Fold each of these.
Amino acid sequence: MNNKFSVNDCCVVELPIVHNESGNISVLENHQNIPFDIKRIYYLYDVPMGAERGGHGHYGLQQYVVAASGSFTFVLDDGKNKKEVFLNHPNKALHIKPGIWREMKDFSSGSVCLVLASMEYTESDYMRDYQEFLNFRNG
Ligand code: TYD
């Protein structure tokens, strides 16, 4: 649980590309180039045009987010500052630290948002109420 990270601590990391003429591979590997143990992988797809997702923070969860296909925008919020991050290439990962509110928007048609998560799913790690989030940030 950490309420100290700011939106500036949430950076886009460039992933290595294994390139050859028949295509590319990018790899994320525990203890090699990801700063937490991956406990869960999930992906968002078939997001209808104009849909907005997110609208929550997490007490302990950190994530790496990759635009596996297409593009979308994450809006990060630490209770004081906001930052928009546009992801549009599979060799870039956004590291979302714990204690950050996020919204997602502008999903392109056919986009796939791949998320590598540091914790198994548990609803008790979510802050879905913005005032609860602000109380946590200011606590
Ligand atoms: P949520 O994390 O709110 O989605 P998003 O941030 O992409 O808008 O999750 C939406 C629903 O899916 C919610 O009812 C919880 C469920 N869910 C799971 O059951 N397991 C998971 O790993 C995730 C991420 C969500």
Amino acid sequence: MQTLHQAALAHLPAAADVAPHYAAPLQLPLYPRTESSIGVVHLGLGAFHRAHQAMVFDALLERGDARWGVLGVAMRSTGLADALAAQGGLYTVQVSSREGPRWQVVGAVLQTCVAAREPAQVVAAMAAPGTRWVTLTVTEKGYGPALADLLVQGLAARRAAGLGGLTLASCDNLSDNGRKLQKLCVDAAAQQDSALARWIDSACAFPNSMVDRIVPAATAQQRADAARVLGVMDACALGTEGFWEWVIERRFVDAADGAALAAVGVTVVEDVKPFEEAKLRMLNGSHTAMALIGAVLGLSTIADCVARPAIRRFVYGLMTDVVMPHLQRPGLPAYRDALLARFDNPQLHHSVHQIATDSSLKIPFRWQATALAQLAAGGSIEPLALATAVWMRYLRGEDESGQVYAISDPMGATLQATAQQHSGDVPGTVQALLAVTSMWGDALPRDARWATRVAYWLQSIMQHGVAASLEACCPGY
Ligand code: CS2
């Protein structure tokens, strides 16, 4: 079978010809890709970008605005960047919504490279006249000196070339992500050249933004399905849900970009905070809780988790009684119900271990503010205290039926050693693990009610198991 590439596009048969029984629509990039130029340098080429922002840029290209082609930059791993390059940047997305599946070949990624292998190409792209944006999905742990160095080099080259600034949009699940990126760049530049730091601060724009779409890691099944529908092989095929949201702060180098993005469904607002908080604490907060619960119970996906009545009640209770009282996003009950429906999507196969990856870096953004707000208000903390106890149990690296799993987390080894050291001693475990201030801050570990309730639930898990503890925690829904 042939491989997906530009010349193959013209010959892709309609889906119905390939598989007459398969009625799903297939959308192709019909705009002239060769006439599109790179306007966006995306750092963190992975599944999420390809099923989210790249599809937004694809829609802009489809409308005839040729400035939104993407250079997809993988930070370190070469596999995807090279596989995409071999396909001329083309790949297929299977979008599974309640109305059924549809397929789309996305054309926005015009080139790819690997930052660790071709740093000069990234710097040159940032300093190219046609480049207008840098977008980032480098994950929570990506915001370190290596990223700062790369961006500062690119921006310095751009300034040296006498060009205007860039709009740099962090699209990671961090609170205040634009401001954090701005500080990272400006601080790093200031160490070399204060004039450069001032230029970055004044000529570039760092909008905060919230992105949302559930995009599980691609599977062999998706690649096989894509081949069946397209009639060509696509090594980069992936799947996602129908829902997507991108809410971005109105803060652009080119003010007209707001209207362009809005025209293809992006929400441009003055303040992202209400959207960001709702998303991080409702969606991601529930995700992390379910991922840890699922891992300890031996379940494999989020859909498996919400199919269990006790877990569903737990997530409903967590969102309704604990998280929602502190959020400003309008329409929260409907937002919650929509989230539960999204978690239910049986097509997604979203692995609990994928979501549990890097939990020590995710939990601060997902749980901490909620716990503090509930404690201050004297509200219920039970579901979050239970989730925290489940995280402590998760560190054993073995589910309740004795199956061993790997913990993928930069702090994993340290945290596991701490848990191991206090094994069998519930108060000691809780005290030692709550003392990790990078996860819990200063205030939470000092709160006696918090520590007591976490210890209560850890004891309950050790004695009765996670399932019985969940039943006891949220019986009323
Ligand atoms: C998930 C997110 O892996 C994770 O930590 O919670 O990737 C989540 O699927 C996305 O943020 C949804 O927009």
